[in-house]
């Protein structure tokens, strides 16, 4: 059951059974176990019964549909949490194991290893690029996954806000150019249990913990993503966009299309730990 919280179960029962409308006969006909044992299967069966009955024509189907979408929002979040990108090589000789037990592919391009701060037990796959040579640090939390072809680029801003000074580049530029004398790079901080999939370009200021960023995404300069979020595949975040916690984002430009359940964080933590342990076990 995705909904094992008593308060959430009560709310769902209120919606499905229309308790507040006083239709007691409706509640009696479609019965599911009460909180906290509200099973996902029972929700679906109840919704199907609502849609195939005459009650749907009286407007109750709309409210039931909202429960249906809420349920599948949780299912989609769990599915993305369990996604795994198979590395090109599973040979131990193709990876460098750091003192913090982070595995870095020998084909990965880490521009300045001294400015890369990995908290440990993370995986950086082949063909990924980390621009840690911009004069500021890049921090990667524990149990993180950097997919093949991903690129981490710190945000570059002017040293002065004086409009009379000529800037070398536009502040919204997505080019991977080192900061000039009139510019500076901000730290790029990635929280723990966060996954960045293949061919994604990150120029954010910070990414929280328990975040899933799909493949082929583009995160523009100065964007910020809080904890427990999902950025779907092929999403492009515009400059300065802030993604609040428990948000689901998709599109180009990216927009918030839904919210995630409160269990998202624990599911992502378990998924990242299991993914790392599986990766280490399968190394030859």
In summary, what is this structure?
Its main location: cytoplasm. The chain is α/β, with parallel strands linked by helices and 284 residues long.
Which helices and strands, and how do they pair?
Blueprint: H1 6-17, H2 24-29, H3 40-52, H4 60-81, E1 95-97, E2 103-105, E3 109-110, E4 116-118, E5 123-124, E6 129-130, E7 138-140, E8 145-146, E9 151-152, E10 156-158, E11 183-185, E12 188-190, E13 195-196, E14 201-202, E15 206-207, E16 212-213, E17 218-219, E18 224-225, E19 230-231, E20 236-237, E21 242-243, E22 247-250, E23 255-259, H5 264-282
Parallel strand pairs: 2-5, 3-6, 4-7, 5-8, 6-9, 7-12, 8-13, 9-14, 12-15, 13-16, 14-17, 15-18, 16-19, 17-20, 18-21, 19-22
Antiparallel strand pairs: 1-2, 10-11, 22-23
For the largest beta-sheet, the strand count, sense and barrel status come to: 9 strands, mixed
- Structural class, please? alpha/beta
Q: Shape from CA axes?
A: globular
Biggest sheet, spatial arrangement of strands = 1-2-5-8-13-16-19-22-23
Structurally, how many domains make up the residues?
2
Instruction: Provide the CATH superfamily of the largest domain.
Output: Hexapeptide repeat proteins
Number of strands: 23
Strand content: 15-25%
Stated plainly, the CATH topology of the largest domain is called UDP N-Acetylglucosamine Acyltransferase, domain 1
H/E topology pattern: HHHHEEEEEEEEEEEEEEEEEEEEEEEH
In DSSP terms, counting alpha (H) and pi (I) runs of 4 or more, how many helices? 5
CATH architecture of the largest domain: 3 Solenoid
Helix content: 25-40%
Rg computed from alpha carbons, rounded to a whole number of angstroms: 23 Å
CATH class of the largest domain: Mainly Beta
Low-confidence stretches: 1-5, 16-75
Query: What separation lies between the terminal Cα atoms?
Result: 37 Å
Question: Taking all residues together, what is the mean pLDDT?
Answer: 76
